[in-house]
Amino acid sequence: MATFPSIIDSFTTHADGDVIYAADINVIQNAVVACETLLGTTGTLDDTTVTYKLANVSGGDQAVGAAQTVVLTNKTLGSGTTVLLGSDATGDIYYNGGSGTLTRLGIGSNAQVLTVVGGALAWATPTSVANASYSVLGVVQGLTDAATSGLVLSSGVISVNYGTGANQIVKLDGSSKLPAVDGSALTNLPSAVFHQKLQFFSATGAEYAVQNSTSETNGNVIYIASYGNTSNWVISRYTKDSTTGQYYCTHSITTIKVASNTPFSLAVLGSNLYLFTRVGGTAAITRFLSADLTGETNMTISGTSFASGLSAWSDGTSLYVYESSGVFRQYSVSGTTATNVTTITYTSSGISRGAISNGSKLWLIDDQNSPTIRQYPVAGGAAGSSLALNNWGSGGGGQVYVNQDYTHLTFNKASVLGLIIPHTENSPTAIVGTVDEIIPITAP
């Protein structure tokens, strides 16, 4: 067994011829055996029996070979320590790539964000967010001019800046009413809708209260015709003042009337006003320029003529003339010729003198004994909505005719009809003039 010295032995230097004692030989022999024991005898270092003492390795610590694996438990890297894992660059990330393997993720590009793809970390360019719309989520930005935006933006919360002060949005109160505000700067307000009376002079006799009227679909112009005397009609054109809403007569003409109590009616189509009547038992259509009532022209009727002419209207494309109870005859117009197209029936419309259309709907005053305004589709058929009217009689020294013989329809403005009612000054047999009262009513 090798005897290991407790300290490094030292030997006395001898000269040639000196006597060497057995004790010195034994020391040398023990040292050789000890070296062979540690280093082995085959020329290969026996690393299973050698503890390698390296710098800063002490106690039970051991050095590890380059190809070996060792688990470091609770080890602290000292200040300034550098760990090189290969291909390192500033910004690289190392993470657990699975099974305890340390995985390197190289730094991404500018503006990229760290995300997860397939369970692993990865760099990705974020999808840009578009501006929001009513159907797409996106970026919403408040107006930058807070003073006039009507919005309040505070601590990331946006709200409506409401009230009655400058640059505020008006809000209804608890009773769903507008608060008191100054409306003096409001413009383009619609003209007022109110009753108006138009003086319309005629001769004496009950028949001269009989009138007919029509209007343009926007209600800006109305046309009224009446018997002027036993031999003519008086036709007048009234224009609405855009500020006051009142109608003023701009043009008036007289035209020949063949016989007393002859049915007649008016309708506007395009730039023309048409007068429908029967002359000596024969249907007749007379055309005037609607702008000034000039250019009186007798039209040619092609095909079947209308049998009455008590009322008429236009849908903006064709003319329609009263034929009999509930029936109107349709005419197309080309130049000075009106050609019969067909007849259309309006169920339960009765005898109708008042008629007006906006092109898609037709309103008729029907039933002489109990006047009612009924709405019909232009194409005919059953009535839709309706509105009953009071049937006033005589009283107070005057006569008011609210029945189908004397009451007519115009447009006052969009969705508002003008109910025209003629008043006589004394009685139907002693007329010195007629007052037409225009009453606006919401179209049924």
CATH architecture verdict of the largest domain: 5 Propeller
The gross shape turns out to be rod-shaped
Query: Which parts are unreliable, with pLDDT below 50 for 5 consecutive residues or more?
Result: 203-208, 391-404, 426-432
The CATH topology of the largest domain is given as Tachylectin-2, Chain A
| Strands, count | 29
Rounded to an integer, what's the Rg over CA atoms? 55 Å
Mean pLDDT: 77
What proportion strand?
Answer: 35-45%
Count of DSSP helices? 2
CATH class of the largest domain, anyone? Answer: Mainly Beta
CATH superfamily of the largest domain: Glycosyl hydrolase domain, family 43
**Structural class from helices and strands?**
mainly beta
Distance between the termini: 129 Å
**Total domains, how many?**
3
Describe this structure as you would to a colleague.
It is a single chain. The protein has 444 residues and is mainly β. The chain contains two helices and 29 strands. The strands form eight sheets. Strands 7, 25, 26, 27, 28 and 29 form a six-stranded antiparallel beta sheet that branches. β22 and β23 (372-377) form a beta hairpin. It is rod-shaped, with a radius of gyration of 55 Å. The termini are far apart.
Protein topology:
Layout: H1 22-39, E1 93-96, E2 102-105, E3 113-117, E4 120-124, H2 146-149, E5 151-154, E6 157-160, E7 196-200, E8 211-215, E9 221-229, E10 232-240, E11 247-256, E12 264-269, E13 272-279, E14 282-289, E15 297-298, E16 300-302, E17 312-314, E18 319-324, E19 327-334, E20 337-345, E21 355-357, E22 361-366, E23 372-377, E24 386-388, E25 394-395, E26 398-400, E27 408-413, E28 416-424, E29 434-442
Parallel strand pairs: 16-20
Antiparallel strand pairs: 1-2, 3-4, 5-6, 7-29, 8-9, 9-10, 10-11, 12-13, 13-14, 14-15, 17-18, 18-19, 19-20, 21-22, 22-23, 23-24, 25-26, 26-28, 27-28, 28-29
